[in-house]
Amino acid sequence: MTPNPQPEEIDPRTLKLIVGVIAISLPILTSRCASVPLKSISESYYETGWSHSIFIGFLFAIAAFLMAYNGVEPHEKPLSKGASVAALGVALFPCDCGHDPNVVPYVHGLSAAAMFIALAFFCRAFYRRARKKAREKGYAEADRRAVIYVLSGVAIVLSIVVLAIDYASGHRLSAGFPTLTFWGEAVALVAFGVAWLTASKTVPGLAGPAEHFSPLRENNPPAR
Questions:
Q1: What residues contact 17, with CB distance under 8 A and at least 6 apart?
Q2: Residue 105 and residue 42: Cα distance in Å, rounded?
Q3: Per-residue confidence at 7, pLDDT binned at 50, 70, 90?
Q4: CB 223 within 8 A of CB 217
Q5: pLDDT for 47-60, tens place per residue?
Q6: Average confidence score pLDDT of the chain
Q7: Checking phi first, is residue 199 left (phi over 0); if not, alpha (psi -120 to 50) or beta?
Q8: Based on the number of CB atoms within 10 Å of its own CB, is 99 exposed (0-12), middle (13-18) or buried (19 or more)?
Q9: For residue range 208-218, what is the model confidence (pLDDT) as tens digits?
Q10: Which candidate, 12, 82, 34, 15, places its Cα nearest to that of 186?
Q11: Cα-based angle 78, 82, 12 (whole degrees, multiple of 5)
């Protein structure tokens, strides 16, 4: 008798689900738990309560899950490891944010930019896989996922561009809109989270019966 196949110790769809939920909730929780309105999500580092703990803890969690994720295509593994290191850079090297002029310069900003750029490339990889599945198997849900990946990638890139323009112009944009940085970071994080939550194939309407995954179900369809 052929033994039943054993499930993987770590299912990549579970990683995507957890990362997606963390990324979406990070800007919401840090803002809600802060003692003052945040001009940047990174300003949570200087809070003394839950906002600080959530900011550091969630970034370490994202870094850990990205380090464990290898992807499907050859370039995805180094991309994921690079994004993981960048997430750690965001957590360990705080921004000045008007609080501490003695921080290590540029590391925080460059780490944040590198992380978001890598995550935008993941949206592209997810899009290619969804379009391939839609063509080969005719899954309408895969086409819906492809649209979400495009929108998420565009949102991340636009956020990076706007924040880069603000920085290059000496913060002229944020001078008239003090929370610009917060909202730019929030849009990028939520877009990243939505893309990974979609890729987990746990969302009804975005995964067909032959694809739908539940971390609580004993038998699930194959990950690919």
A1: 196, 197, 200, 202, 215
A2: 14
A3: low
A4: no
A5: 888 999 999 999 99
A6: 89
A7: alpha
A8: exposed
A9: 888 888 888 88
A10: 34
A11: 65
Q: How far apart are CA 156 and CA 149, in angstroms?
A: 11
Looking at residue 35, its amino acid is S
Q: How many C-beta atoms lie closer than 10 Å to residue 8's C-beta?
A: 12
Checking if the pLDDT of 42 tops 70, the result is yes
Q: Tokens for 113?
A: 């930019």
Tokens representing residue 25 in the block? 């909730």
Tokens of residue 117, six digits: 């750029």
Q: How far apart are CA 166 and CA 20, in angstroms?
A: 27
Q: Is the pTM of this model over 0.70?
A: yes
Structure tokens at 73: 């295509």
Q: Which amino acid is at 50?
A: W
Cα distance between residue 35 and residue 132, in whole Å? 47
Residue 2 has pLDDT above 60, yes or no: no
**Per-residue burial over 136-164, b = 16 or more CB atoms within 10 Å of its CB, e = otherwise:** eeebebbebbbebbbebbebbbebbebbe
Give, in order, the Cα–Cα distances in Å from 199 to each of 49, 131, 146, 202: 33, 13, 10, 8
